[in-house]
Amino acid sequence: MNMTLGAEDKKKLGILAVVGVMALGAAFYMYSELSTPDAPQPAPTTVTTPARAPVKVGEAKTVGTAATHLDPTLHMKAMLVTESLVYSGSGRNIFSANSAPVVVIPKAIASARPKGPIVPAAPLGPPPPPPIDLKFFGTATSANGVRKAFLLHGEDVFLASSGDVVQRRYKVRTISANSIVVEDMTDNNTQTLPLIIQ
């Protein structure tokens, strides 16, 4: 029993030693990476360009795009020349508020306000309901004395008595010899349809 415990302890001690060596190696590697000085920066180079001929106003100038043609220094003489330029174009100078063209607004021919008293417009009410799309063209009386109306909707002919609903929309209220009263149930609109004689 003691022998197995000793062997296990030696095995654990060996694993611990390997892990410790690896940790020391990693720490040394990180220290050496962080402590190495950076590579020295190259010394800045200055580019000298030969003196250029002065540019005339209105003359195009070729500008190089390579690094050897770039000159970051300010040339005060060239800046003073551009400051003394005077705009001589025929259009508007966008750098001056005084060069805007004068806008002439024509005078009104007639007065914008009508003469005389102003009459307020009559308030508009709701629009009238649409007409009921049925035509009443006759009646028939059954043997028991119930009067029925002949109604036409497009090409369809209906025979309806009081209380019947036509086209699932129009309810027949009353039937007389010369007219009928029909209610449009979609908008509670009741209208009297006269007899159409053909």
From TrEMBL:
Keyword check for Membrane: yes
Record field: transmembrane: 12-31
Record keywords: Membrane, Transmembrane, Transmembrane helix
Superkingdom, natural source: Bacteria
Protein name (record): Type II secretion system protein GspC N-terminal domain-containing protein
Organism lineage: Bacteria, Pseudomonadati, Acidobacteriota, Terriglobia, Terriglobales
